[in-house]
Amino acid sequence: MRLDKFLCTALGITRKEAGKILKEKRVEVNGEIVKNGALKITDGCDVEFDGNSLHMTGPKYFMLNKPQGYVCSHVDDFNPTVFVLLDEVSPEKLHVAGRLDADTTGLVLLTDDGQWSHRITSPRHVCEKVYYVETADPIPASAINEFAEGVQLRGEKELTRPAKLEILEECAALITISEGKYHQVKRMFAAIGNKVVALHREQVGAVVLDENLEPGEYRPLTEEEIASF
Length: 229
Description:
Layout: H1 3-11, H2 15-23, E1 27-29, E2 32-33, E3 47-49, E4 52-53, E5 61-66, E6 95-96, E7 105-111, H3 114-121, E8 129-135, H4 142-149, E9 164-169, E10 172-177, H5 184-191, E11 196-204, E12 207-208, E13 218-220, H6 223-227
Parallel strand pairs: 7-11
Antiparallel strand pairs: 1-2, 1-3, 3-4, 5-7, 5-13, 6-7, 8-10, 8-11, 9-10, 11-12
Helix pairs in contact: 1-2
């Protein structure tokens, strides 16, 4: 994480205020005065402000607008991971609460709080997810009832849980599901003879993707968003 961002988070100040105290030579990193806000801070750094040590405390919660082509794992041999988009201390300690495929875009939640993410991803907890989907062929009106009754996925013994389908255009819809089977949305449309050509997650539970976040950008969750799970 950049030093100026670290100061903003640790002290609850603006980037402008962080720049001011750096210029005033009030910040030391590992015993040396630092004025460069772009300096990268790691877990091993000792940061002091006016002689007082600063620490990042408490669990972390973020929302990210995932771009296409990024994977939700820490290591991948072929694609960049979402964690390279984070300007945070020790991003390797974070994990994704509900992964998206490399070609799926939209809302990704990241945290270092295992119990919190479990409430999102565990099949025992019903957490709805809303996706915007575009298909290769027109979506028949009959799909609304088919999805509401549950779809038989190839290789699965049981039907999917009831899903809500809202057809927006001939080849575009919103789908709300409450489980997270492998490639579920794509397989649901495949089960009715259609193919998903674009998939974007807009909402997880009560948390809606911030429309101000461009692809690749992220922000901390609000207290209300965190408490919604």
